[in-house]
Amino acid sequence: MEFRIARIDLREWKAREEKIPESLLRKYLGGRGLGAYLALKEIPPKIDPLSPENKIYILTGPLTGTGAFQSGRYHVVGKSPLTGILGDSNSGGQFGPWLRFSGYDGLVIEGASDEPVWISIVDGEIEFHPAKRLWGKGVIHTERVIRAEMKTPSEYVGSVLAIGPAGENLSKIAAIMNDRYRAAGRTGLAAVLGAKKLKAIFVKGSRKVEIADMKKFLEESKKLTKKIMEHPISEALGKYGTAVLVNIINSHGAFPTKNWTRGTFEKAFEISGEYLAEKYLVTNKGCWGCAIRCARVSKVDTGPYRTPVSEGPEYETIWAFGANTLIGNLEALIKINYLANDLGFDTISLGNTMSTLMELYEKAKKGELPEEKAKELMELLGDIEPTWGNAEAFIQAVWRTAYRHGIGDIMAEGAARLAEYFGSPDSAIHVKGLELPAYDPRGINSMALAYATANRGGCHLRSYAVSFDVLGAPKKYDPLAIDMEKVELVKYQQDYFSVIDSLVVCKFNTFATDHTDYVGVLQAVTGWEDLTADELLEIGERIYNVERLFAVREGHGYKDYLPKRLLETPLPDGPAAGKTAKEALEAYLPKYYELRGWEDGKPKPETLKRLGLDEFLYIVS
Amino acid sequence: MEFRIARIDLREWKAREEKIPESLLRKYLGGRGLGAYLALKEIPPKIDPLSPENKIYILTGPLTGTGAFQSGRYHVVGKSPLTGILGDSNSGGQFGPWLRFSGYDGLVIEGASDEPVWISIVDGEIEFHPAKRLWGKGVIHTERVIRAEMKTPSEYVGSVLAIGPAGENLSKIAAIMNDRYRAAGRTGLAAVLGAKKLKAIFVKGSRKVEIADMKKFLEESKKLTKKIMEHPISEALGKYGTAVLVNIINSHGAFPTKNWTRGTFEKAFEISGEYLAEKYLVTNKGCWGCAIRCARVSKVDTGPYRTPVSEGPEYETIWAFGANTLIGNLEALIKINYLANDLGFDTISLGNTMSTLMELYEKAKKGELPEEKAKELMELLGDIEPTWGNAEAFIQAVWRTAYRHGIGDIMAEGAARLAEYFGSPDSAIHVKGLELPAYDPRGINSMALAYATANRGGCHLRSYAVSFDVLGAPKKYDPLAIDMEKVELVKYQQDYFSVIDSLVVCKFNTFATDHTDYVGVLQAVTGWEDLTADELLEIGERIYNVERLFAVREGHGYKDYLPKRLLETPLPDGPAAGKTAKEALEAYLPKYYELRGWEDGKPKPETLKRLGLDEFLYIVS
C-alpha cells in the first residue's frame, strides 16, 4: 500500500513529496493514528502551539475515497493551542476524498508564511497563492472566491478547506472548516493554521485510489453497507439528523442546561431534530460516499434570525448554543450556527464559552466575582448584556470573539481561560481545557469515565458511552448504575474509535459495527491478507497510547479528572436528580487503568513494549 | 506668537520639533488653514492616499485651549482616501487643548510604521509604544488600556485620540476618534492612520498656552461668551442637543428619508432630540471650554438595543442611521451609534452607505440591477437582509463593514463605490465622493450651492446655509425662493468658517457671531495688534482657495455639481414637494464663481495674486 504525503513548507512556499513506509501504516493505518505518531516524533516537546515549530497533519486513511461506506472524511492532528496537548479533529463533507484524488494521501503543514497564503493542489501540482484579499473574510466568501479562481463552481467537484476570521485571529476555539459548513472543530487547530497564515487549501484531481483486490473490496464493502444501513439508529440519523438526540438525551435528564446547572431543558422539543425537520429543513445531505445523509440543510426565511440556505445545525451545536445558554428559539440557533461556521468556530467550545460568560455575568451582578474583575467584565462587555437566553447578546458576542473585540478577546481563548480570567474557574465545564459536549455524566455515568480519560480533553468521540448507556448499542445498560462491564466498553470504544478515525470512516457506523467488520474491507484495500481482527484492535490501542504519551511528554494533560461541578453538585432535576459523577468516576477509573496497563494516567513500560512502542519508552522512564 | 509642531516619522519611530514661522500663521492662523497650506506644499500630487507618502496634520489654532469660549477643538487634514482630494475634519472633546498642554500646537504624521504603534506625548516627551495588543480593538477599550498604562484614569485629564477597527482595516468611511465618542469623522482620514499603523495618540502636560495680552483677552473673551450664550440657538442646543433639528428640518420637508427619496419621515418625533431628552438622556456634556453642553450622554437600559452610558447620538447620526434607512426606533439608533463610535466610523458616511445598500437590495429584488451584480449582492449579504427599517441588518452590517467581512468589504469603501460596484451609481447621494449630510437641498435651496462648492465634497460645514434658510441667523430667508443674496451668504460663511476652523473654535457660535467678533480676542492672544476684520476674512478666503487648489492640482474634484437625484427627481412629499435643486444650483453657481473670482471651479490667476498666493500660480496656469 502506498501513502504519499506532501510536506508543505510555508516559510519558503515550497512542497516536497514523501512516502510513508508501509510498515508504519500497518502500525497506525493513517488519519488520526498516523498523525499522532508523526506528531509525537516530529513536534518538539513544550513548544508554543502557535509557533512555526508546530505542525498540522491533514490526513486521509486507507479507506478514504475508496467508496467504502462513509469513507468521505479526513483527520487533522497537531499540538492544540486550547489544551496544550495533542489536538486532533475529524471532518466529513468532500475534502478527504478530493485530497486523495488530488494526488496526496496527506499533507504536513510546516513553518509559517510571512504573509497570508492559500494553496491549490490539482493533480499533484501544488501552488501557493497570496491570500491577502481573503484575510479577514468568512469561510463562505473564501470558498466562493477560490472556486471562481479555480474555475470549479460545483460543490461536488474539488473541495476547499479554510479557516475563518476566528482562526486568523488565533482564537483557541477556532475550527478548520471544509466545504463551507463542515468542521474539524475540536481543539482549536484552526488557530495554528492562522498563526501559519494559511487561509485555505483547494484540492482537485483525478488520481484513482489504489485498491489491492477490487473483487473482494466490492463484496466486503457491500456487506458493510448493508449492516450499517439496516441499523435503526442509521435510519433515525437519516430522518432527523443528529438533533434526533435532543429529545432522547433530555428525557434521560442528561441534557446539560444553563451551563451545566440542570439536566433538562423545558424547551427541548422546540430545538429538536423533529422540530427542525418540520419547520426549517430544506433537504438532507450526505458526505461523500454515504447514503445515510444525516446532515441538515436548513433556512429561516424572514425575521431577525433570517438565514439563507445553509447546513446544520447539528445536535451538539443546538445543545451548546441552545439549552446550555437557555436560548430556546431554533431560528436564533440556526442563525448563530451560520455565523459560527462562516467565522470559523468550534460550536461546542463557542457555546460553552458563551454559557460560561452568562454565568460569569450573573455572578458579577450578584456580587459573586472579585470586585475588580466584575468591573472589568462590565467594561469589556460594552453594550452587550449576556443574560440567560439572550440570543442578541450571543450574536454580538460571536462577532466580537471572531475579531477579538472587547470581551471577545478573552472569549476567543475558550471557556476555561475566560472563567479563570474572571476569577471563577469552576464556571467553565471542561476537561484538560476542552469544553465538554452535550451529555451530562451525572445522568449517563459511563460518560464520566469517557470524558475523564479522553486523550484530547473532554470529548464524546473517544468513547461514545451514550451508545450503550442510552441507545442500547451494542446492548442497553442502566445509565445511572455502576457496572464494571461498562469500563471494558469504554476502553473498547476508545481503541475501536481510534481505528475508525485512522481508516478514516465515520463514527456513526459504530452503532452497527465492531472492529471485526473492518478486517475484510481493509485487507482488500491494502493487500494485507494476514491482517486479523485482534491486530486491528491492537492498532487502536497503540494509537491511544501514543496520544497519551504526547501528554506525558508535555508534563500535563495525562491526569484524568472531571470538573468540580460534575463531581460535587448533584443534578437538581429530571431522572438523574440527586446524582453526581463522583461515584462512577471513582469506581471506574482504577479498573480502567488496570485494563489499559497504565498507572496514574501514564502507560507502564511493559504496556508500551507489548504494543511495540519501545521507541517511546524514554518518555515514561 | 509661537507655534510648535512635532514631525513624527513613523517609519523610524522618531520625532523632531519644528517652529512654524509667524508670517505663515498670520496668513493661515492654524488648524484647517495651516493644514491646507502644509498639505498643498508637502503632499506630492496624485499619490495614493493610503501610501506612506500621505501625511496627516493634527493641528490646534491660536485660540485652542486658551479658555476662549468653545476653544476645545482641533482639526485634522490630509489627502482623503474617500474623495482623492484634500480631506479634513474637526473634532471637539478634550484632545485639542491637551495636545497644546502636552507641548505641541500640532503634529505632522509622516511615513508608515511596520507594526502597530501608539504614541504618548507628555510634557514635550514623545514616546512610541508597540500597539499589537490594541490592534483590532474598539476605541473604548483602546482608551481604557492606554489610560491605565499612562496612569491617567480621569477622562478630564489628558486625552486619547484613536482609530477603531474600521480605520485599521482601511475603511474609507472611518473616523478618527478622540475621547471615545468624539469624531473627526469626515473624509475617512482614519484609514490613512490605519495605513500608517498608528493606533492612538495620548497627550497630557502642563504647558501654559501663551496669551500676549491677558487683560485684553479676558475682556474680549467675556464679550464673546456673553454674545454666544445669550443666543436662542445656543440655548436650544444646550437643551436638546443637535438633535433639536430633527423636528425642525422635518417640518421643512428637507429631512432626507429612505435614501433621499422623500423629504419627511413619519417617525421624526420618535427620533428627535426632544424624545431623546425625555427617554434616554443621562446628562448633557460639553467640550473643553464650553458651557453650552450640547453633547448628549444617553443609555438604553434593557432589551435588544441595550446600550451602556455613552455619548450621542447627534442630529446627523440620528438622521443618517434613522430617517434615511427608515429605522424609527431611537433605541436602535443609540446602539448603532455606540457601535459606530467604538468601531470608528463617520456616522454620516456609514448611514448613507447603509441606506444605499438598502436601495440596492430593493433594486436587486425588483430586477433593477444587472443580473450578475444582483446575484453577487445576494451572495455577499449572506444572512443579512437589508430591508428598509431593518435595524438588525444594520447592526450586523456595521460589524461586517468594520472588519471587511462579506458585503462589508464593499461597504467599507463608502456609498459611492458601493453603488458603483453594483451598477447603480445614482443610488449613492454624494458630491465628489463624500456622502451628503442631513439637509435636502430640494427643500433648503441654498444648500444646493453649499454642497456643490464645498471643498471637501458634499458637506454642511463649509457653509451652513440652513442657518439663514431655516434658522433665521443672521436673518431669515425663504428656503424655497431663489434669492441672489444667499449666494453672498454662502461665500461669506465658507470664508468665515475657514477662519473658525483655523482658530480653532466651534462652528456652533456662528449663529451668534460674525468674523468681526473674533478680531479682539485674536489680537489679544497673538499680539497682532494691527489685525483687522477684513484681514481676518481674507485669511478665510485664502484658505478656501488653497483647498480648492489642491483639487485643481489633483486634476479632479474642482467641478462643482450635485447628484442626479437631487437635480432631476422632485421631492414627492412635504412643504417642498415638487421641488428639485436644479433651478437653484443653476441660478447660484455663476454668481458664486463671479464672487469668488473663479472660472469653472478653478481660481483665476488674479484671484490668487490678490490673496497673496503667487507661489501656487503654477497650479492654475
Structure, explained:
The structure is a homodimer of 621-residue chains. The two termini of chain A are 35 Å apart. In chain A, a hairpin with a 2-residue loop joins strand 7 (117-122) and strand 8 (125-130). Chain A has 621 residues and is α+β, with helices and mostly antiparallel strands. In chain A, the strands form five sheets. The first copy, chain A, has a six-stranded mixed sheet with strand order 2-1-6-3-4-5. In chain A, strands 8-7-12-9-10-11 form a six-stranded mixed sheet. The mean pLDDT of chain A is 97. Chain A is built from 26 helices and 19 strands. Chain A is globular. Helices cover 41% and strands 14% of the residues of chain A. The longest helix of chain A has 22 residues, at 533-554. Chain A has three domains: 4-204, 4-Layer Sandwich (Aldehyde Ferredoxin Oxidoreductase,  A, domain 1), CATH 3.60.9; 237-434, Aldehyde Ferredoxin Oxidoreductase Protein, subunit A, domain 2 (Orthogonal Bundle); 441-511 and 532-620, Orthogonal Bundle (Aldehyde Ferredoxin Oxidoreductase Protein, subunit A, domain 3), CATH 1.10.599. Chains A and B meet through helix 4, helix 12, helix 14 and helix 15 of A and helix 4, strand 15, helix 12 and helix 15 of B.
What are the defining features of this structure?
homodimer; 621 residues; alpha+beta; Aldehyde Ferredoxin Oxidoreductase,  A, domain 1; Aldehyde Ferredoxin Oxidoreductase Protein, subunit A, domain 2; Aldehyde Ferredoxin Oxidoreductase Protein, subunit A, domain 3; 6-stranded mixed beta sheet; 14% strand; globular
